[in-house]
Design brief:
By secondary structure, the chain is mostly helical. The chain has one domain. Helices cover 63% and strands 0% of the residues. The chain contains five helices and no strands. Helix 2 runs antiparallel to helix 4. The longest helix has 25 residues. It is elongated.
């Protein structure tokens, strides 16, 4: 049993480090893009003109970073409580509360959350 608890603690520590990484995603990602843009600015003009698509790609990546960073708070909203029931035999939700697909599910009958 203590091996299970130790394993759960290690998993929790790792998970919280992943959460921390997600929290810094926008800032760290944009820093990397800014560094690439600064490097691009140091090039001679005749090299820059060959890299117009690269600049466009960097702009597109920045846009993607912004979109991803809008989603991350939703993902992380309750991440800190994900391991709360590890030490308990009780479950927080039954299948009925969460909603399940009926066994006879077909393409014409959508899942219900009863």
């Amino acid at each position: 049993m203590s091996a299970d608890i130790n394993g759960a603690k290690e998993e929790r520590v790792y998970f919280l480090s992943v959460v921390s990484t997600f929290k810094s995603y926008r800032e760290q990602s944009l820093l990397r893009i800014r560094h690439k843009e600064k490097c691009l600015e140091t090039l001679p003009w005749h090299h820059k003109k060959w890299l117009t698509k690269y600049r466009e790609d960097l702009d597109a990546i920045k846009s993607c970073i912004e979109k991803n960073s809008e989603l991350l708070p939703v993902v992380l909203n309750n991440a800190h409580t994900i391991f709360d029931n590890v030490y308990s035999n009780e479950t927080s939700h039954s299948e009925q509360e969460v909603g399940t697909c009926p066994r006879a599910w077909t393409r014409s009958s959508p899942c219900s959350s009863s």
